[in-house]
Amino acid sequence: MDKIKSIEELRKLREHAKQSLKTRQGEAKVKVLISMGTVGIAAGARDVLMAIIDELEKRNFTDAQIIERGSLGLDLEEPVVAIDMGGELIYYGKVTPEMARTIVAQHIINGQIVSDWVIAKGNKK
Amino acid sequence: MKIFRIHALICAGAQCLAAGGNGFEDALKDELKKHDLDEEVSLVETGCMGACQLGPLLVVYPEGVMYIKVKPEDAKEIVEEHFLKGRPVRRLMWKGEKAELPNLSEIPFFAKQTKIVLRNCGIINPEDIDEYIAQDGYEALSKALFEMTPQDVVQVMKDSGLRGRGGAGFPTGLKWELAFKQISDQKYIICNADEGDPGAYMDRSVLEGDPHSVLEGMAIAGYATGASKGYIYVRAEYPLAVKRLEVAIKQAKEAGLLGKNILGSSFSFDIELRMGAGAFVCGEETALINSIEGNRGEPKKKPPFPVVKGLFGKPTVINNVETLANVPAVIEKGSKFLRQFGTEKSPGTKVFALAGKVNITGLVEVPLGTPLRTIVFDIGGGVPEGHSFKAAQTGGPSGGVIPAKHLDVPMDYENLPALGTIMGSGGLIVMDEKSCMVDVAKFFLKFTVDESCGKCVPCREGTKQMLEILEHISNGKGEKGDIEKLEKMGNLIKLTSLCGLGQTAPNPVLSTIRYFRDEYEEHINNKSCPSNICKIEGGKNERKVAHRQTA
After folding, report:
1. Nearest-by-Cβ selection for A17 from B134, B145, B146
2. Does A3 contact chain B (CB < 8 Å)?
3. Which residues have a Cβ under 8 Å from the Cβ of B91 and sit 6 or more positions away?
4. Residue of B nearest to A22 (CA)
5. What percent of chain B is modeled with pLDDT above 70?
6. In the predicted model, is pLDDT for residue B335 greater than 70?
7. Which fold has domain B129-340?
8. CATH 3.40.50.11540 region(s) of chain B?
9. Which 57-86 residues of chain A touch chain B by CB within 8 A?
10. For residues B445 and B466, what is the distance between their CA atoms, to the nearest angstrom?
11. What is the value of ipTM here, to two decimals?
């Protein structure tokens, strides 16, 4: 990244970053957001992440973006996986690798929310 | 295997058949034949889907459309509209699915929280500076650099009422002002990320989820006090936090948000990481300074305070992670921002790590002054079924217990010391009636005995003696007068210890004696443990299992 030399450049970069976050959502149909703090990883988030990547690859679904994030605070429900398909965010809790495969098949591929495992939906910020 | 274009699943459970499912299936088969679709559509009879009051049910894949309460006469419409033309029949579809999901901010765990420090945790990608900038990151730093003088920044911090979140609650603005007034060629900012309380992990979560907010807070502190160098003293046991901090510092330097002439101004600020030495006492500020200098992590006498003579003998501001994460929000939104939350003397929010015997564990950020009841019962969902709330430990091994009768006391920097405990860094351990208070006090005291650095006598010897008395009591060898002895020693250690570790070490013992004196007396006089935790030899409820002879 180039050095930001003034406040105007920072603001310009912010507008650009906001835009690119938006367009990135437009580019990739699906965003998969995984809580990868220490709590999440200890609860098995890495296995879930690998399962999701593997399942997406197996189904040849390339229009997805996988993003690691920090912890949401709701540790009881870790690993937490949020799926963003353009509308609201859907948060799944206590996800196992097997559940992750089902979520990929049902939610990401077929667009059906697996409502039994959903903690809540959330607004994008 | 034959490939079908559409899979139609018909529920053939007893309930659906009774509701007329069978007639529908026949009608559907007829319709499919009529339109030559029986090669393209696979009809599958499934077992009960569980939504019996909505039956008979038909689920159509790949779309996953669910039709409810279908009648034989609906078959024609479904086949002609959906199977043939691809237009699902909205009239028959189940609509309830989406509306039933609650919003994240509506579920009880989040509904009563106010997120300032954790504003970006779990929202942004911590390893991408662009995402932080998109969330108005580094706006506060640029505002401070170009629109405010260092005095303005200090004044805003003073007016905001922000108090140190590391535990003691010293006003941050005042600390900065003292450092600002020092005349020195070099000043330092230290971020204390040596989070040692068992059960507390809010600092780790901030560093892992939103490292840039801490960097920005440090840079603002540097601008306000005239420091050009910052250190983050982070626990080496937090590898992920260390890695993300490294990434964040590198990105900020590349972007020119750290380093020489930040954003083209004359202000330069650089940050270095220092790994913690692995001792609890290194979280004490003078010991921390010693550790960064490369010396043994032992505390020093205060005064001189670090703001006068700190790291390498230069004026130094030491702030906790959570405090620094508050700074960008305060500078960006003004001195009145924190005053919207919390109490008159304790504005803003505090993050608590909710753990122990509670239904929903996790990190919660609430306005200061929120009653314990709200945190444990409304946010944490209460104590698990069948058990009752007995007490909660705040402040980890330096704090004390809050018993059930004080559940409604507002949690802030004034009320907690009055109850004999401290805010601490925010660990909150909930205990139910199965916890023995003597055992709890013993556990926390054992921790401080292990972690005492050994420099001063009261802490090194006194806490050891207290622990021995506690062990006697819990083994059923307690004597009359032990409680008074504990109280006397505890108060003496508090008064005479060198640093914060020793000055707070007796707190768990003193506060459990204050609220649960009857339990101590029960151990001593009747040689029994009411909660059946302590192994009292020869006592009423001695654990027979341990002595069972093998056959």
Report:
1. B134
2. yes
3. none
4. B134
5. 92
6. yes
7. Rossmann fold (3.40.50)
8. 129-340
9. 67-76, 80
10. 8
11. 0.72
Per-residue pLDDT of B236-261, as tens digits, reads 999 999 999 999 999 999 999 999 99
CATH (one of 3.40.50.720, 1.20.1440.230, 3.30.460.10, 1.10.15.40) for B437-525:
1.20.1440.230
Query: Domain B349-432: which CATH class?
Result: alpha beta
Q: What is the residue whose two structure tokens read 């049902």?
A: A106
Sign of CA dihedral B167, B168, B174, B176: negative
Q: Tens of pLDDT along B460-511? A: 999 999 999 999 999 989 999 999 999 999 999 999 999 999 999 999 999 9
pLDDT digits (tens, 9 = 90+) for B337-392: 999 999 988 999 999 999 999 988 888 999 999 999 999 999 988 999 889 999 99
How far is B529 from B228, CA to CA, in rounded Å? 57
Q: Does this model's pTM top 0.90?
A: no
Closest Cα partner for B323 from B244, B416, B220, B395?
B220
Residues of chain B with Cβ-Cβ distance to A21 below 8 Å are: 130-131, 134
Q: What is the pLDDT of residue B490?
A: 95
Topology, domain B6-107: Glutaredoxin (3.40.30)
Answer yes or no: are the C-beta atoms of B314 and B323 closer than 8 Å: no
* Chain region(s) in chain B for CATH 3.10.20.600: 349-432
